[in-house]
Automatic annotation (TrEMBL):
Family: Belongs to the 5'-nucleotidase family.
Record keywords: Hydrolase, Nucleotide-binding
GO MF: 5'-nucleotidase activity; nucleotide binding; UDP-sugar diphosphatase activity
GO cellular component: outer membrane-bounded periplasmic space
Cross-referenced Pfam families: 5_nucleotid_C
Designated name of the protein: Bifunctional metallophosphatase/5'-nucleotidase
Organism of origin: Aquariibacter albus
Biological process annotations from GO: nucleotide catabolic process
InterPro entries: 5'-Nucleotdase_C, 5'-Nucleotdase_C_sf, 5_nucleotidase/apyrase, Metallo-depent_PP-like
Claim: Hydrolase is one of the keywords in the record: yes
Ranges of residues in domain 5'-Nucleotidase C-terminal: 420-606
């Protein structure tokens, strides 16, 4: 069966409004028939009720500042109404790299975050709202598993996520960045103990003496839409997988909880298409509620009031029957804190939901716009104070920094950690060229630029996965109308996040042999899976290397484009050919590099240069900012402004290694630099 089948008519959810009309008609008919029809069986008594508040997909670029504050007010109100029997859950995609995400790296948020860092504002907002567990969504992994682990993990004054991320069909133990966060003993533990970056497949939340099981699950297509690193994904084969196999990968976690006597179980499922969650509802045994995610599906009941101009795609909740004859409900809300989902589940003594006792006047999707708050007797002034403090400071950073525009790019600027430490990328080229352009304003003879891939900390652009899609696409930055930023504009915020270290630039002089030695060092540990921060990104030169050769003998060809730099009168010079230095004796090149590398960072052998004439562009001890001339952030900003304005944006898309021209990996392509 395909992964995304149509829901069969037998299990299709029936709109409750239509059902109500049918029941009303039936009652009228009973009144006119003399009462011959038998009375309906009485509904079971409610043995336990549980209020579930839920969100998903804070990833679409909506007004996260206003919406997060408004949603916090609703969460506080509804939790106060049932303080002992409420859980607050997310079905994943709790953030997406972009202005809101990046703004938390600004020092102004130190009082709120302890230690600032991109994405920490998103996590802290959920901490302050009291989120208790989340599924792993695709955007949660967009910057790779190393970043994900560091973001949710506690470190110093940063407390990390105060809730666990859950996914039972992901194997975190096979990823070196996450394995230590996901010991098998985490499964089934109390969620409140799984804080500070802990991962598990399932957890327990104790509510008024009742143990509630919470299971997480992620789309099997994860590897095609985000950066999964070494995470194992079940079922394997992504698009070839079927719903039966997916259900089979989830059922053991449910069974484990049931074996402990837990009979109230919620599945947090981030499946991208709500049809998948619907299909799971008819295949899983023992699950009472599925909180869907990734599809941005708006579900409303008859008395819900959508935001202006928005309509629903189904009834809240969708109702199904499990293979064991158990009622199963599926709920979902739209993205970006636009709605808070609320459902109060009435359970009988056997732990089964009593559908006839669901209350549509309580359950549903609550809009977080001003009108939605007013209907609950609230305004944004009722926002949780901590949430408001974080959101407002993020708004101030965005207004100041995302509106400070440097230039534009019509393509995604690739700064993924795995890629910049393993191959040429277009962002590596761009920032190396920017450093060279700056250096030539100081010393026109500067001919070449060398930096390390580890100094590039993030991409510039947007990774988009449309709701319901099974593949994603990389493109230019998103527009931010409030800051005057158009799609493709590159802002101060973008540059600061990508070049977070803001290294100072240093000019040095190298011989031909020393240049080869520096590049040899950069590629000495290359393997197909290596992510050494020392891997070079270069400007003003091109080279090929053969990773099958011993370290120190890998550079086969090296060409300097213009040995005179910006000074007049030179043509490309072959420095290395066939692994041997062939440049004329006495050839020297002026190079711009990072002060970190010039000082021996990443093991680069600059200390052994024969006559370096090193000139640092930023004095030691100076606190560098975006405006600091001679540091790499300002170098990139000035280069974009001069060369790539909105009217002529940077347009060199990143290429696969087989198409790379500056750094030619001979295990993946032929040497395009070698002379016949």
């Amino acid at each position: 069966m395909p992964l995304f089948p149509r829901v069969s008519r037998a299990f299709a959810p029936r709109p409750r409004l239509a059902l109500g009309l049918i029941l009303a008609a039936g009652l009228a008919a009973c009144g006119g028939s003399g009462g011959d029809e038998p009375a309906a069986a009485p509904l079971p008594e409610v043995a336990f009720s549980l209020q579930v508040l839920h969100v998903a997909d804070m990833d679409s670029g909506g007004d996260l500042v206003a919406n997060s504050k408004a949603l916090s007010a609703l969460v506080n109100k509804f939790r106060a109404e049932q303080p002992a029997r409420t859980v607050f859950l997310s079905s994943g995609d709790n953030y997406i790299p972009g202005p809101f995400f990046n703004a938390a790296d600004d020092a102004s948020l130190t009082p709120e975050l302890g230690v600032t860092g991109a994405g920490r504002g998103d996590i802290e907002i959920l901490n302050l709202m009291g989120l208790q567990a989340s599924a792993v969504g695709n955007h949660d992994l967009d910057l790779g598993t190393n970043f994900f682990g560091a973001l949710i993990g506690a470190s110093g004054a940063w407390r990390g996520a105060r809730f666990p991320y859950l996914s039972t069909n992901l194997d975190f133990s096979t990823d070196s960045n996450l394995a230590s966060r996901a010991p098998a003993t985490n499964n089934g533990a109390e969620a409140s103990t799984l804080v500070g970056g802990r991962l598990a497949g399932h957890a327990v939340i104790t509510v008024d003496g009742q143990r509630i099981g919470v299971v997480g699950a992620s789309t099997p297509t994860l590897a095609s839409i985000t950066s999964t690193g070494g995470i194992g994904i079940r079922p394997s084969g992504a698009l070839a997988a079927d719903l039966d196999a997916l259900a089979a990968s989830i059922q053991p976690a449910v069974d484990s909880l049931r074996s402990q006597g837990i009979d109230k179980i919620v599945l947090l499922a981030h499946m991208q298409q709500i049809e998948v969650e619907q299909g799971l509802a008819t295949r899983l045994r023992g699950v009472d509620l599925i909180v869907a995610g990734g599809s941005n599906t708006r579900l409303f009941d008859a008395n819900d009031v959508p935001r202006s101009g928005e309509t629903g795609r189904g009834t809240y909740p969708l109702s199904f029957t499990s293979p064991a004859g158990e009622p199963v409900l599926v709920v979902n809300v739209d993205a970006d804190y636009k709605y808070l989902g609320r459902i109060v589940l009435p359970f009988d003594a056997q732990g089964r939901i009593i559908p006839g006792r669901l209350d549509s006047t309580v359950n549903g999707a609550y809009a977080t716009d001003a009108a939605g708050l007013a209907r609950q007797g609230l305004s944004v002034a009722n926002a949780q104070p901590g949430v408001a403090a974080v959101a407002d400071k993020i708004a101030a950073v965005i207004a100041a920094k995302d509106g400070a525009l440097a230039g534009a790019s019509s393509v995604y600027l690739e700064g993924d950690r795995v890629l910049v430490r393993n191959q040429e990328t277009n962002l590596g080229n761009l920032t190396a060229d920017a450093n060279l352009a700056y250096a030539q304003t100081v010393d026109a003879s500067t001919a070449i630029s060398l930096k390390n891939g580890g100094g590039i900390r993030s991409s510039i652009g947007a990774f988009d996965v449309a709701p319901g899609a099974t593949t994603g696409s990389r493109g230019p930055t998103r527009a931010n109308p409030a800051a005057g930023k158009l799609a493709g504009d590159v802002s101060q915020l973008d540059i600061e996040f990508a070049l977070r270290f803001n290294n100072g630039l240093s000019l040095v002089t190298v011989t031909a042999a020393e240049l080869k030695a520096l590049i040899e060092h950069g590629v000495s540990d290359w393997t197909p899976t290596s992510t050494q921060g020392k891997f070079p990104q270069v400007g003003g030169m091109r080279f090929s290397f053969d990773p099958s050769q011993p370290a120190g003998s890998r550079v086969r060809t090296l060409v300097v484009d213009d040995p005179n730099g910006a000074a007049a009168g030179a043509t490309p010079l072959t420095v290395v050919s066939g692994g041997v230095v062939v440049a004329p004796a006495g050839t020297r090149f002026r190079m711009v590099t990072l002060d970190f590398l010039a000082g021996g960072g990443d093991g680069y052998p600059f200390a052994g240069l024969s006559a370096p004439n090193r000139i640092d562009q930023v004095a030691a001890g100076v606190t560098k900012t975006y405006a600091t001339v001679g540091a790499e952030q300002q170098a990139l900003a000035a280069f974009l402004a001069a060369r790539f304005p909105r009217t002529a944006p940077f347009a060199a898309a990143d290429s696969a290694p087989a198409g790379d021209a500056r750094i030619q990996n001979l295990s993946l392509r032929s040497d395009g630099l070698a002379t016949p």
